[in-house]
Design brief:
The chain is mainly α. It is elongated. It is built from 12 helices and 5 strands. α2 packs across α3. 45% of the residues lie in helices and 6% in strands.
């Protein structure tokens, strides 16, 4: 199966699980969406949706928000991550919208990128959601899911993931795929403790396949002899070293031999970790 074929199968399976892939941010017009997306950086959509009603009731348009000082905006977004920098960005961006774009949110990627606090991800969200133009925004969820499943091959930056997805997903499906991957990452393929047991795409997931190859637990280890057990040497020890494996993942290793085939003496579980692309 080629990567493009694999992507087609994965997206079809996600469509069955997520019949209405769309943003969970609440908005009524492009300006409200822009505000919400700017606030959502390193913050949950749930928290943003709690904050935006009062914020936008007080500053309903770019013209009104452009008259505000950052400190006034800050009062409404204190519970959001990085509130000071976001308040400044909203104030500056609102003034730019009024002074340079006639009080409207611009509809091109290049113009959106000129706005304060708007990076590539935010611009892509705006293009896909507000203006129904083909774009794939790569946030932490999309980055993690695309790499874990293997839709992209060990892409190390969000831009690299975006370009990789462009190659395997038809352009007319970019917007939908963006939401499918985000929602799968938010509710199933989570950063910590992904729900592999209920995931619809495990059969096609490189991360899940790697998990299955981890060493099985060893029974009957004696934690009184040491915290760790090296299967290679048959020795117990308490103070490990760390080594990067061939995938660049830091693993616990036995001092001296450097073996990474190490187990927790208390549980018998391997200490090996699979690359999980959390950022």
């Amino acid at each position: 199966m080629t990567r493009k074929e694999k992507t087609r199968v994965v997206l079809d399976l996600l469509r069955e699980r997520i019949p209405r892939p769309e943003t969970e941010l609440e908005y009524r017009d492009p300006f409200e969406l822009l505000v919400a997306v700017m606030l959502s950086a390193q913050c949950t959509d749930v928290r943003v949706n709690i904050v935006t009603p009062d914020l936008l009731k007080r500053f309903p348009t770019p013209q009104v928000m452009a008259e505000a000082e950052p400190d006034e905006i800050l009062e409404y977004i204190r519970s959001i991550s990085y509130p000071n920098s976001k308040a400044k960005a909203l104030a500056v961006t609102s003034r730019m919208l009024v002074e340079e774009f006639g009080g409207e949110v611009p509809g091109t990627h290049a113009e959106l990128m000129r706005l304060r606090g708007v990076g590539r991800k935010t611009a892509n969200v705006m293009m896909a959601v507000a203006f129904d133009e083909p774009a794939i925004a790569v946030d932490t969820h999309v980055f993690r899911v695309a790499n874990r499943i293997g839709i992209v091959k060990d892409a190390k930056t969000p831009h690299a993931v975006e370009l990789g997805l462009h190659r395997v997903i038809p352009k007319e499906e970019w917007g939908e795929a963006h939401h499918l991957l985000i929602l799968h990452g938010r509710y199933t393929c989570t950063a910590r403790s992904p729900a592999c047991s209920s995931c619809p795409v495990t059969e096609h997931c490189g991360y899940f396949a790697a998990l299955q190859k981890l060493p099985k637990p060893i029974k009957g280890l004696d934690p009184k002899r040491g915290k760790y057990y090296s299967k290679a040497s048959g020795r117990y020890f308490d103070k490990p070293i760390t080594k990067a494996d061939r995938n660049g993942v830091e693993q616990i290793a036995e001092p001296g031999s450097g073996s990474m085939n190490v187990f927790l003496a208390k549980t018998g579980e391997t200490t090996k970790k699979v690359k999980d692309y959390r950022v």
